[in-house]
Amino acid sequence: MTAKSMEELTSLCKRRGFIYQTNEIYGGLQGLFDYGPLGVELKNNLKQAWWKSMVYDRDDVEGLDAAILTSPAVLKYSGHEETFSDPLVDCRSCNSRWRADHLEESKCPSCGSKDLTEPRPFNLMFKTNVGPIDDGTSFAYLRPETAQQTFTNFKNVLDSTSRSLPFGIAQMGKAFRNEVTPRNFIFRVREMELMELEFFVEPGTDEEWHQFWIKNRLEWWSKQGVPEKRLDLYDVPAKELAHYSKSTTDIMYKFPHGIEELEGIANRTDFDLGSHTKNQSDLSITAKVLKNSSSNAKLAIQDRETKRWVVPYVIEPAAGVDRGFLAVLNEAYTIQKLENGKERTVLSLKPHLSPIKAAVIPLKKNNEELVLAAKNLKKELQGLSLGRILLENSGNIGKSYRRHDEVGTPLCITVDFQTLEDQTVTIRNRDSMDQERVHLEEASPYLQEYLR
Ligand code: ATP
Could you tell me where in the chain the CATH 3.30.930.10 domains are found? Predict the structure, then answer.
C-alpha cells in the first residue's frame, strides 16, 4: 500500500521526527528540509545500502568524497556555466516566476493570466565568495552534481589504485540547484543529496554497460522496497538530453503527486574527461568536446597491452537520496484494518532501512528491576552493531507498539515481571503482530537472524 496523499507523508514525517522544514521558526526557507532523529537514520541506512552495493559488493568500484565548493573553471569546461539552466517565465500580472517546461497550459498557475514573458535560460548553480575579498572574481560554485569532482579526480584515483577498464568511482553527497519552483516536499529541493556512480568503460562497450546498469539499478530499488512493477523506464528523447549525454534512461516512480524521475542513468560518453583534458595529440576523443581546457590534465588511461591511450566512456547511474527516501517511505506506508474494526498505521520498511532496529520496553517505567533488565538488554543488543536499538521507557505498552509500528521498528522486545522469574522476554513482530516468548540469551541471535 502507499499513502493517499503527500499530506499523509508530510504529517507523519513531522509528527514522528523524520523531516522538518528548515528554519521553520523564522517562517522556513523554501525548498530546504532538515532530517530529524528518525529521518537521519533512514537516510543514512539508504545511503549505506547504496554504498554497500556499489563499493563493497563489487570488485571494480572505488569510493570518493570530494569538496562541495568547486572551481568555476571546472564548471566552465564541463559546460555547466553555459547550459545548466531551466527555461524561466515571469507572469506580468502577478510577478510570479515559473519553469516554462512545467506549465501544463500556457498560463500562470497562480493567477491564471496568459500574459507571460518569453522563456529565458536561468542558470541553476549557486555561487559563493571564497576568501575575504568580495570583488566578484574570487568565487566558487556549490556543486550541482558530484560527478565533476569525480572526473577531476580521475587521474588521482587511477594513479593510486592501478585500475584498468572497466572500473567505477562512487560518490555520495550534497549537491545544490537553485530550482525555480521547488515543490512537492522533498521531491524537488534546492539542497539535495546524490548517489552517483561514474563507471568508466572502453568506447564501444558503452551501450552494453548502459543496459547492465539499468537492470542493476532496478534490482537495487526492489531490494529497498520499491518493486520493479512500481517502476517504469523512460528513454529521454534526443531533444531533451543533457548536453553531455548520448542517451539517458530515467527510472520513473509514481510519487504521491505524480509519475516522476527517481534516478537517471546516462551515457555521458567521453564528454567530461575529454573536456577537462588539454588538447593532447595522442588522444582520440570522439565526443564533440571543447578539448581546450586550461587544465594540464590528461584524463585518459593507457591500455596495458597495446599502450594505446584511451579516453573512457562513462555510464552514470545518478539517484537522488531525498527522492529515494520519499519513494521508500511511500511504498512502506500502510493503513491496516484490524479485526476489532480499528486501524493501525504501519511503516513496512525493509528491516535494513528501519531507523530503529528494535525497541526494548520495560513494562513499568518506575520499576527499578524491570528498567535495569531492559537497560542491560539494550546495551547487549546495541553491542551487535546492527543499527540503533532504543530503550523505550514510556510505561505504556500499547502506545509504544503503535508508535513503533508507525516508524517502522521491526521488533519490540518487552521486559515484564515474568522476565525477572524465568529470564524470558516477549518479542513482538511489527508486520504480523505475533508475539513470542524468548529466553534472554536467545535475544541477540534472534535479532541478528531477523536482520540478516
Ligand atoms: P528533474 O528533471 O526532475 O529536474 P534532473 O533530470 O535534472 O531531474 P539529474 O540531473 O538527472 O536530474 O539528477 C539525478 C537525480 O538527482 C535525479 O534522478 C533525482 O533523483 C535527483 N534530483 C535532481 N534534482 C533534484 C532536486 N531538485 N531535488 C531532489 N532531487 C533531485
Answer: 6-84+142-329
CATH topology assigned to domain 6-84+142-329? BirA Bifunctional Protein; domain 2 (3.30.930)
At 185 the three-state DSSP class reads: coil
Residue with CA nearest ligand 1 atom 12: 264
pLDDT in tens, 201-231: 999 999 999 999 999 999 999 999 999 999 9
pLDDT recorded at residue 289: 58
Lining ligand 1 with CB less than 6 A are: 177, 179, 188-189, 192, 194, 261-264, 318-320, 322-323
DSSP characters over 44-73: HHHHHHHHIIIIIS-SSEEEE---SEE-HH
* CATH 3.40.50.800 intervals, the chain: 354-451
How many angstroms separate the alpha carbon of residue 178 from the centre of ligand 1?
12
Minimal-distance CA residue to ligand 1 atom 14: 318
Name the residue type at position 338: L
Nearest CA to ligand 1 atom 30: 320
**Fold designation for 354-451:** Rossmann fold (3.40.50)
Mean pLDDT of the chain: 94
Whether the CB-CB separation of 91 and 108 falls below 8 Å is answered with yes
